[in-house]
Specification:
The chain is of the alpha/beta class and 597 residues long. It has 2 domains: 2-254, Spore Coat Polysaccharide Biosynthesis Protein SpsA, Chain A, CATH 3.90.550; 259-593, Rossmann fold, CATH 3.40.50. Helices cover 38% and strands 17% of the residues. The strands form 6 sheets. It has a 10-stranded mixed sheet with strand order 12-11-10-13-14-15-18-23-22-24, sandwiched between helices. Strands 5-4-1-6-8-7-9 form a 7-stranded mixed sheet. Strands 2-3 form a two-stranded antiparallel ribbon. Helix 17 packs parallel to helix 18 and helix 21 (501-508) crosses helix 22. It is elongated and about 85 Å long.
Amino acid sequence: MIIAIIQARMNSSRLPGKVMMEFCGIPNIYHVYNRVKASKKVDEVIIATSSNSADDRIAEYCHDKNIVCYRGSEDDVLDRYYKSIDQYKLSDGDGIVRITADCPLIDSDVIDEVVKVFLENQYDFVSNIQPPTFPDGLDVEVMSYRLLEEMWRNAQKPLEREHITQYLYNNIHKYAVANIENEIDISSYRWTLDEVEDYSFIKEVYESLFPINPAFGKNDVLKYLESNQDLIKINQIYKRNVGLEKSIEIDRQHVEKDNYSILDEKTILITGGTGSFGKKFIEIAFKKFNPRKVIVYSRDEFKQFNMQKEFKNKLSEEDFNKLRFFIGDVRDLERLQRAFVGVDYVIHAAAMKQVPACEYNPFEAVKTNIHGAQNVVTAALDRGVKKVVALSTDKAVNPINLYGGTKLVSDKLFISANAYAGDKDITFSVVRYGNVAGSRGSVIPFFKDIISRGELILPITDFRMTRFWITLEQGVDLVLKALRESKGGETYISKIPSFKITDLAKAICENIELKEIGIREGEKLHEVMITRDDSRLTYEYDEHYIIYPSHEWWDYKSRFTEGGEPIAEGFEYSSSDNIKWLNTKELKKEIKKLEIH
């Protein structure tokens, strides 16, 4: 079922009463309604207005015209949208078309085009505005009922409640989305109704076209404007989304206030900070927050030298002066203790990660991954650090190689370190994910390198192999969540899509031959983040899972994060048995977004 919801209200800071302004003797709202109703793919049309008395006129008009009208919150537009369809028994795959009442020239054919793509694919969201190639005023957004429900439950920021799809755009990596583009880019045309000049433009168009053909569409308007070029200039001084930009500024202030306690005025140290994660964390830290200092702690002076040059160009002089580089090894407790002086948060990313290297140098892997973890815990306890978040890996789950075994011990050390906290104000937690898409350790740079050399065959260890898809940004977001919410002993795991390794290969090079060469020693067919044994300790949240510690000697039950539900015993979170998958087309889009480090 496809339901179109037209968002309408009388109050407008720029053009009050625009909903009921008339074109050819008919109120704007009725024009919009009839044009949406003409869509062949829309089953029901609802007008959603507010319960403010100023909108009584809209409700009365709808009643007189037998139009379904829902009245709800004036400011929480997302709540109004969601509750307007309560009377319908919708399933996850049913679609909601979002249209606003300031689109008097909305074209039913454009609506059908967007809905068609939504129905023929398994997208969560399809629009024609990201990026826009249609005129401002022909905006169409189609979302699944499941997505609308998720946004309604999860959106917290004022902007996300006022603008229906802003939560989606803030979390775009979680969803399958598509954009419809016009044959030519005519996004510079302004056909929306938001200013006095817009009214003059649309009035002229209606008076010229409506009497001849009440169902005139986009192509009719374009043809009319070809011979009336001066008309286009009437409202060209205005740009798209002025109201949204104002709301974004308000929301930015809200976010800054809400996130103040995370990184602002904090000193953060990242062990192994010259890696892909460290670079992305620093980039986000200075872009979104105002840290007092960020310390990169690592043993490779050349990588630090290159990283300094990179960030001297990326950061402002003020921010660059807050960046510090310490040479040191996590094996060296004395050096760690000196580096941790005055540090608020530690993110432990240092590790020996290369599986064959760990197998060939087992004692060295133990020194770095196990003894190094113990040293980080000891130094953090001794130096008054407030929070420690350790980066883990899927290979620590049911380990079959030495690297995974050492990381499992490391995880257990950080979780149980909370037992040593005593009356100290410190917490230890773990964040777990697999290879990050596009990072130095992922298969994407490996595949691209082979293709760049002109090779005709791409080696695949096993055609059955699956993996989780997580980006560096998502990895950083999960660490920030742990810093914000952790109370000690948790293991955080993101809800992310899966993909087949063969689909990834096709997404990188569609026509290359794939050759199965056999699985490598210490390699798994699938990534597992939560085992069946861990399920009884796991709680599910909107965007992630948390595995709580199995021991109770520090009363961890009183520390549960609100909003979670225990998952069913026997549940396993594996890349082979996931709810959401990325196909080849979607993987191509994701790869384009990546910054290969």
